[in-house]
Amino acid sequence: MKAIYKALLGLALMTAVPTSFTSCREDAPSVNQTVDITVKNEFSKLVEAINNGNLKREEAIKKITEAIDGMNKSSSEILSEIVKVLNSVNTTLETKLAAIEGAINSQRLLLKEKLQLIAKAIGDHMLNQDEVVKKITQAIDKLGGTLAEKLEQIKTAINSNEKTTQEKLDLILAMINAQTINLGAKLDALKTLIETETVAISQKIDILNKAMEELQKQVQANGVTNGQIQEQLKTLATTVNTILEEVRTGKADAAKAFAEILKKIQELIDKINNNIPIPGTTDLGLSVEWSDTYLGAATPLEFGDYYAWGELKTKEVYDWSNYKFARPSDADPNKYLLTKYCIHENYWGGVGPMDNKKHLDAEDDVVKAKLGGKWRMPTIDEVKELCDNCTWELKDINDVKCLIGTSKLNGKTITLSFSGYRDGDKVEHLTETLAFWSNEIDARVEYEEHSQALVCIPSFDEKPGDGNGPRYLGLSIRPVRTK
Predict the structure, then answer these.
(1) Is residue 369 domain-resident?
(2) What is the pTM of this model?
(3) 288-342: per-residue pLDDT in tens?
(4) Which among 135, 315, 352, 424 has the fewest CB atoms less than 10 Å away?
(5) For residues 39 and 46, is the Cβ–Cβ distance under 8 A?
(6) For residues 458 and 18, what is the distance between their CA atoms, to the nearest angstrom?
(7) 69-81: pLDDT as tens digits
(8) Which residues constitute the domain of residue 478?
(9) Sign of CA dihedral 122, 125, 129, 132
(10) 397 belongs to a structural domain
(11) 365 in a domain, yes or no?
């Protein structure tokens, strides 16, 4: 019996087109590519090549990252190798910075080890203060593992006795700038720092001021935050400013004031964790209005939440083994059959006759479940309509790779940030793939276990199109609203 095999996905960082997704265009090339990474255990030779000017900066960083990830050594041994490069008087500044950048991009090193390298760069005057926060932000966004594991690393760093208050503040500011961390987690980290840091009240006031200023700056830079969360964040910022001013002027007891601030922060965290922001919409002159943000995101640059196709909850791990509408084959537990939304007999594993369903039922539409009203997931025809009726431009906004669509009908714009996709317990191809689900399966025989999506892979085509991917993958969701 033909069955769904657990996907063996192309995870190599240098693959031009992520093999989890395909484009439905007829001129699409084969994506079954292999990658030959030649530098694994020759880190020192690679550094020498960079030092001699034989590699350009971008290529050097890429090779350094590959070499670090390919080392047959422990993370502490890898860290030691990089520190040797930074300590060497024969290494150029450009090579040292490339080594730091490669380490930040690496999946092998933990956040604490990346922070050690950044701290050394500060001490050796390789980075200024603005660059420090930017590098830590980059390190956070490129950390491997689940969101929970990422947050645990950040929490450990905040609680570390080995770090100065300034280093912890830099970490908080970087976390606020990070696109892979949601607002609730950012506020929780700030609250943790204020609660645990044993410094003078004046320093805590400084930390709060800078953090709240950065939060407000991010809201303005990333676009208008939608729904009630926006107003609650503004209210929190105003409350913090008022209370801090009362502390400065002696009108309020400092300990009581900070207790009140922590209470207000926790109240907002609870609201964020229990609510999904209601997005605004953009009328591009099309058949439906498109959401300004991904589902669960507060701004156009945030990635929002990742969902497997037809599921209503986020997960720590995305796999066929825990996909809602799949079960292991009786003949082979490593193969999976579909229990809903199936039009091919060989893939059917549900109860009774095959259902022949091609579109999500309302009960399995996560947008309907979360937002209600006229909100829903887009059809593939609506995805095609969006792709065909806009001109598209790749653009980096606040270090987030985006696709800007300008309507050919009325000139209004929509911003789609690259969010990659979740496979297993990791976010893959964060800056290489833009994809969000439609509400329709792919009916073609060769893609029987796939569902359709908007996909943009600039290494293949800088314009978005209708594509597909295995249903178990976690993708962002872009809601639409019926006019």
Answers:
(1) yes
(2) 0.56
(3) 999 999 998 888 998 889 999 999 989 989 999 999 999 999 888 888 999 999 9
(4) 352
(5) yes
(6) 11
(7) 888 888 888 899 8
(8) 281-482
(9) negative
(10) yes
(11) yes
